[in-house]
Design goal:
By secondary structure, the protein is α/β, with parallel strands linked by helices. The chain folds into two domains: 203 residues, Metallo-beta-lactamase, Chain A (4-Layer Sandwich); 126 residues, Rossmann fold, CATH 3.40.50. Helix 4 packs antiparallel against helix 5 and helix 7 crosses helix 9. The longest helix has 28 residues.
Length: 349
């Protein structure tokens, strides 16, 4: 039995979303990441499929980081009978908590809308999971320190190692019967505005590595200069710069870079707005986990004070009504929902 370790790819194989690896040691089953399939309809439909293993037999879940495609299936897992712990670093679990509550609310709202407007073939349409399911998942969260070996089970030791990418993100080293399995999660850049360079594993018998951008190189363009150019051109035309942005990490990075440009007087003084409720919640994660990022406290406070952080939808309309040059960072990053759609509809029709 000890020589019969199996790993099942339950997501992020043949696609870049829905990350899930199931390790069966012969004694215990551990799920590494529990992501939601996102994107094209044929991928999203996979979230409704029967889970390929008996969920109550899973003994533990461990998370590399908090993004939806690594955590968003957790409430569904609870709905199917999962009772065990969900391990992650403190900021990972805080990010996951924000994302799961938001996702569950959207799931419920979409089901309600489908029933009201009658466009679903299911009668009644049901949400993939509910806010109650999300709260159940959150109740099973267990925070673990980075760079500390933990005995998960007698035959399984593991530790989280700093990985950049987003706050709290790690790769996971797992020793099973003396063999080391390394799960890369999503890997950050060696040079990042907010985060330290990712660590590198020193050894691995088996390495599971993400490769979304494995076939290309990042642009060497000076993004700070390019952003300053766009802001200045928009200001000179009396326009509004609307930047669709992901709530986690990208929004905070944009805020920091724009604040730095303002400090250097590389851009003119104008209203700067961050309109993303989730993005605002993620700022609190940065404030509460200062050892996980490189922002000094005075930089964090200066950045936040430079922006108007929108707290209500009423404020969104107040901002839209003012005919003046301004910068607006708003969710969502894929322009598939969120406040950014309100701005775009009003400004470009």
């Amino acid at each position: 039995m000890k020589n019969n370790i199996t790993v099942h790819f339950l997501g992020a194989a043949g696609t870049v979303t829905g990350s899930k690896f199931l390790i069966n040691t012969g004694e215990h089953k551990v799920l590494v990441d529990c992501g939601l399939f996102q994107g094209l309809k044929q991928l999203r439909l996979k979230n409704w499929d029967q889970f390929p293993v008996n969920v109550p037999e899973i003994d533990a879940v461990v998370l590399t980081h908090g993004h939806m495609d690594h955590t968003g299936y957790l409430p569904r897992l609870m709905k199917m009978g999962y009772k065990g712990p969900i391990h992650g670093t403190r900021p990972t679990l805080e990010i996951a908590e924000i994302i799961l509550r938001d996702s569950a609310k959207i799931q419920e709202e979409e089901a309600k809308k489908a029933n009201k407007e009658g466009y679903s073939k299911h009668h009644p349409a049901e949400p993939l999971y509910t806010v109650k399911d999300a709260e159940q998942a959150i109740a099973h969260f267990n925070s673990m320190d980075e760079n500390v070996w933990i005995e998960l089970f007698p035959e399984v030791k593991m530790r989280f190692q700093y990985n950049g990418h987003i706050i709290g993100a790690t790769f996971i080293e797992m020793d099973i019967y003396g063999k080391r399995f390394v799960f890369s999660g999503d890997i950050g850049r060696s040079e990042d505005e907010l985060l330290r360079a990712p660590k590198k594993p020193q050894k691995a018998d088996v390495l599971f590595i993400e490769s979304t951008y494995g076939d290309r190189l990042h642009s060497e363009e000076n993004l700070e200069e390019r952003l300053a150019e766009i802001i200045n051109n928009t200001y000179e035309k009396g326009g509004t710069l609307i930047i669709p942005s992901f709530a986690v990490e990208r929004t905070q990075t944009l805020m920091y870079v724009i604040w730095k440009l303002k400090q250097k007087k590389a851009i003119p003084t104008m209203p700067m707005i961050m309109d993303s409720p989730m993005g605002a919640n993620v700022l609190k994660v940065f404030e509460d986990n200062r050892d996980w990022h490189e922002l000094k406290l005075e930089e964090y406070r200066g950045m936040c004070n430079a922006f108007r952080i929108v707290k209500s939808y009423k404020e969104t309309w107040e901002i839209i009504s003012k005919n003046e040059p301004k910068i607006v960072i708003a969710g969502s990053g894929m322009i598939s929902g969120g406040r950014v759609l309100t701005y775009l509809q009003q400004y470009i029709g």
